[in-house]
Amino acid sequence: MDVPAAELTAEVAYQIGALRVFAEAAGSAVSYVKPHGALYNRVVRDDEQAAAVVAGVVLAGGRLAVLGLPGSRLLARAGAAGLTPVEEAFADRAYTPQGTLVPRGEPGAVVHDPDEVVARSLGMALDRSVTARDGTRVPVAARSLCVHGDTPGAAALARRVRAALEDAGVGVRSFV
């Protein structure tokens, strides 16, 4: 969708505000923002949309961390706005040689083999790199690692990734 910047800013602020109400009702709080899906991928390179998302976060108030792909326009804009940018890597997604995610509509975009997901996670944490779908090594400097919740067996897979990281001596903790 091609959403005008002012509309995107308002939508982001509204969604954060609504989420805060539900989080507080449950005795919790919102601590970070992460665009989802196509918007996540678009704000990697689209400066206007990245600025609109960050403006929405700022409009919603608070000093929320913003998750995004390393080197993205989103993280640059978040840092410039005084928010905490958090670089994120993906355990269960394929990467392009440019360090972006392979679009979901393309074959092989999602990594389904649990052993491969664990191996990729270890490589990103220990070697700060991942093998792109063409076989090249791509640098990945991230503070957060995503395992998609819609992956079958995601909770067990996340526990397995965490155990492998801890066994390798990688400290696993919250970024906020």
UniProtKB/TrEMBL annotation:
Protein's GO biological process: carbohydrate metabolic process
Pfam families assigned: LamB_YcsF (PF03746)
Top-level division of the source organism's lineage: Bacteria
Name the UniProt record assigns to this protein: LamB/YcsF family protein
